[in-house]
Design goal:
Elements lengths: L8 E3 L2 E3 L6 E3 L4 E4 L2 E3 L4 E6 L10 E4 L2 E3 L3 E6 L2 E5 L2 E3 L10 E6 L3 E5 L2 E3 L6 E4 L4 E5 L2 E3 L6 E4 L10 E4 L2 E3 L6 E4 L3
Length: 183
Amino acid sequence: TVKGGSRSIVRGVRIVGGNGSGIAIEPGPVQLISVAVTQSQRSAITATCSRPDCAEREIVMTDCEVTQSAVGLRVVGARVAVEGGRIAEQLGTSLSSGSGVVASDGAALTLRNVTIERNQNIGVLLDGPATRATVDGCTIRENTGRGLWAQGQTADAGVQTVTVTGGEISGNSLIGIGARDTS
């Protein structure tokens, strides 16, 4: 568990196995650089924040490899920016297990140039009225469920809740990009 501070950095660490999450961050800020997490029975990386200052406690992941866990990256209310790296081959078919990225409960997620592939469920799941996401230049491919699925985001007229720019979304089994009950 990492309780972040302005100088918190985890660099070049490899975590294999575990009954819980590989890395749990509560609440940030923290930087993960070239970190690899695999075979966690829950989420490889969990980022949570329930404080009023979550926007100032950003978690930044750069060139990380997240594989073969129940969920690759779970973001609950936190602000997370992922640059580069790979989130792939998560296992399981229950409600959210097997998903690459799950963001909910007011999460603010930015994915840039990330490869999200071959997960047994959804590549990226965005859930809840206050959850926001930017997906830029990502490759989301060959996920057994949906590629990118957004549900339940709400906002005033003219406010963007989910932005997808560039990249490639291909070979996902059910839907490339889908949205339900989202404004």
